[in-house]
Amino acid sequence: MPTPPNDVLLNKAAIIERCIRRIKEEYAASPDLRNQTHVDALTLNIERACQAAIDMSMHLVSTGHLGLPQNSAEAFDLLRKGDLIPTSLAKSLRAMTGFRNVAIHEYQELDTDILHYIAREGYLDFVKLCTALGMTIVAQPGGAGTKFYHPLR
Q1: Which of 34, 105, 120, 150 is catalytic?
Q2: 100 assigned to active site
Q3: Does residue 46 contact residue 102 with C-beta atoms inside 8 Å?
Q4: Angle at alpha carbon of residue 44, lines to 42 and 45, rounded to 5°
Q5: Could you state one GO cellular component term attached to this entry (predicted)?
């Protein structure tokens, strides 16, 4: 039986929720990605959501004694091996971590096709992660906020 999310997970889910709202706002303001200020804000919020997802996974790997990830992306694989998230979600979140690394470390120029994808539908992977971990996030302006469920309620 799953346990309710703790404060660490709820705080990270709240960050993800806020970032998704901002991703949607910035993308709506410049869907062609021609305005660099909007692109920067969009990228920053994707990075923040990625980092919150990584922090969630690292926390769960640690508290659940699921293994020792050698890098951020591997933590999602350990969640998959622990049956906390499905394989497809682990794969998507690994890819999102790769995008985050490119954005932060500027290994190469950001691929605008990837930005479009994340802003249109890729952000849903963050929602799926929260859902898999027992939290419901509301990613619409004026939403009710992050909630968690407990199977006995």
Answers
A1: 105
A2: yes
A3: no
A4: 65
A5: toxin-antitoxin complex
Which of 1, 27, 90 lies closest to 53, judged by CA?
90
Q: Top-level CATH class of 7-148?
A: mainly alpha
| pLDDT reading at 151 higher than 50 | no
The C-alpha atoms of residue 106 and residue 139 are separated, in whole angstroms, by 28
Task: Delimit the domains of the chain by residue range.
Answer: 7-148
Tell which residue, 105, 104, 122, has the closest CA to residue 113.
Answer: 122
In the chain, what are the helix, strand and coil shares in percent, each to the nearest 5?
Answer: 65, 5, 30
Instruction: Report residue 128's pLDDT band, with 50, 70 and 90 as the boundaries.
Output: very high
pTM over 0.85: yes
